[in-house]
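dumping this here so i dont lose it
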């Protein structure tokens, strides 16, 4: 029943009540006092009040209370002027009606407040106080529908805090929660008209921006949020420096349904993460374009092939021989993974290793290669010639492997299972992994080193702290990155830098390996500089396991003139 009808009915009932006061109404020859009829009508008015309160809650209670009070005032006035005692009954009825309306109204208003509170809690993130993922899904669907109807574009920004996991791992979940709350408050304080901020999950946030047709202005609006992370988030014990990666997709240009729009924004977010690279202190913003979908599709395809290859024991491990540049004899091997798709496509190592790192399964690949290499090399040493018994196999170790609490135990277990002498195993670690190392990781490396396992710093010279790590970590070898070797014949400064690295390694009692040797001139210059070991296509491409076993059995006395192809 419409509220206006209820109010109209109440007014009519009030009018009749006032009209009947003091009258004598004749029914079938019987005189009935109007006060009696008025009190009967009051019951109908009370029922009308209750209906209005139950149906319209707060507004209904207020209006009906006012009308009952007006009606009461009229009756009291009549009583004062006429002195008719019968009106006392009407006054009592009115007071009861007001009390009933008031009690029901209070109950309904409290129920309404509780209902609104529950509805608010259902769409509010408990931890940060901003909108949650449920609200995000509802608002995104409405925003897309409105955009399609009105033609006004709406932008979706997916945001992820960079390296936030490290805060939880190193400084504790409580510290991480404090950081999330502070960031949410900072961002909520700069949310402008037409913008809505949401916490989607963990350290994932989203912003819906309406009427966002101008790309430059849109980026400016997003920079409001990224700039709020310039200052560190200070908790009780720490200064937490953070950046955020942002991916942007726009409806209707990139997608016309909520699910697809979100996928596009996540693709752009993934690109922003890739672009971040070494820019660790810069928040990245990336707009979606159609090529991103193809890259993401390729990424998932490679991930699927890689995971299946590891699980079904199809990932190939080959071995890059390392040579003494003075004698041309094989003095070591580097174990390398090679991935082939079911269709026969050879997927480059740079591609599938990057995919493994992005998807967090690089530890799985590293563990697989280490196991295969240890088993194969232990078998090779059983039949190896005497002069090959001290040859080592080098295996790359990822940061996720080193970060595991069980890496030391898994290494010892692998050596025991395969029977490989620890002195024949070398673990290669890149400087990028060492940048994130902790004292616990360094202690673990030292424990492993004490067993006889040796360590090599891969990609030496590409970072800024390479020399400092040589003092902190017991490296037995450094490997000069191929990027230096490529330019050594045309860039004198580069050649001098290589000579300096070799000299520094020797001064510290560390062997030096140069990788990527493809020309005789490179070999001769490295031999002149005193480089201990070299590897590259000039000598040999990576060989399969059978060729490696043969080389270990027969020994290898060939000069660099002979190129062995596996």
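and the seq i came up w/
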């Amino acid at each position: 029943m419409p509220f206006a009808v209820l109010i109209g009915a109440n007014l009519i009932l009030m009018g009749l009540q006032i009209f009947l006061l003091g009258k004598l109404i004749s029914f079938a020859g019987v005189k009935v006092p109007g006060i009696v009829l008025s009190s009967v009508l009051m019951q109908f008015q009370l029922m009308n009040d209750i209906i209005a309160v139950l149906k319209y809650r707060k507004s209904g209670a207020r209006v009906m209370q006012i009308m009952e009070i007006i009606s009461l005032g009229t009756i009291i006035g009549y009583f004062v002027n006429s002195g008719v005692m019968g009106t006392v009954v009407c006054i009592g009825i009115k007071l009861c009606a007001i009390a009933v309306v008031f009690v029901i109204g209070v109950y309904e208003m409290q129920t309404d407040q509780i209902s609104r509170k529950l509805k608010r809690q259902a769409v509010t993130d408990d931890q940060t106080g901003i909108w949650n993922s449920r609200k995000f899904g509802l608002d995104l669907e409405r925003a897309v529908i409105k955009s399609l109807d009105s033609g006004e574009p709406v932008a979706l920004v997916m945001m992820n805090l960079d390296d936030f996991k490290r805060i939880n791992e190193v400084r504790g979940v409580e510290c991480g929660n404090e950081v999330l709350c502070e960031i949410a408050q900072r961002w909520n304080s700069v949310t402008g008209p037409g913008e809505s901020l949401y916490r989607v999950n963990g350290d994932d946030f989203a912003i819906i921006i309406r009427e966002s047709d101008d790309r430059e202005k849109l980026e400016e609006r997003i920079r409001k949020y990224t700039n709020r992370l310039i200052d560190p988030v200070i908790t009780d014990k720490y200064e937490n420096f953070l950046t955020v990666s942002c991916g942007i997709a726009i409806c209707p240009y990139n997608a016309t349904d909520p699910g697809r729009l979100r996928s596009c924004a996540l693709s752009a977010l993934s690109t922003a993460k890739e672009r971040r690279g070494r820019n660790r202190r810069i928040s990245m913003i990336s707009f979606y374009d159609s090529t991103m979908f193809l890259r993401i599709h390729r990424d998932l395809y490679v991930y699927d092939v890689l995971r299946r290859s590891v699980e079904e024991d199809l990932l190939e491990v080959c071995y890059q021989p390392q040579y003494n540049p003075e004698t041309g004899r094989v003095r070591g091997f580097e174990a390398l993974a090679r991935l082939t798709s079911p269709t026969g496509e050879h997927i480059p190592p740079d591609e599938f290793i990057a995919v493994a790192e992005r998807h967090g399964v690089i530890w799985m690949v590293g563990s697989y290669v280490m196991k295969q290499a240890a088993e194969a090399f232990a078998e090779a040493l059983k039949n190896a010639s005497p002069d090959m018994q001290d040859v080592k196999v080098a295996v790359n170790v990822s940061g996720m492997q080193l970060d595991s609490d069980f890496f030391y135990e898994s290494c010892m277990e692998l050596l025991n299972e395969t029977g490989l002498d620890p002195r024949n195993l070398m673990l290669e670690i890149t400087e990028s992994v060492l940048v994130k190392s902790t004292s616990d990781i360094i202690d673990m490396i030292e424990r492993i080193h004490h067993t006889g396992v040796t360590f090599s710093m891969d990609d030496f010279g590409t970072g800024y702290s390479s020399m400092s790590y040589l003092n902190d970590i017991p490296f037995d070898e450094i490997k000069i990155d191929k990027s230096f070797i490529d330019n050594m014949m045309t860039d004198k400064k580069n050649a001098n830098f290589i000579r300096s690295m070799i000299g520094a390694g020797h001064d510290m009692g560390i062997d030096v390996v140069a990788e990527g040797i493809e020309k005789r001139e490179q070999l001769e210059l490295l031999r002149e500089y005193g480089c201990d070991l070299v590897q590259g296509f000039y000598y040999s491409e990576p060989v399969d396991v059978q060729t490696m076993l043969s080389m270990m059995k027969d020994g290898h006395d060939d000069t660099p003139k002979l190129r062995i192809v596996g």
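The radius of gyration is 40 Å.
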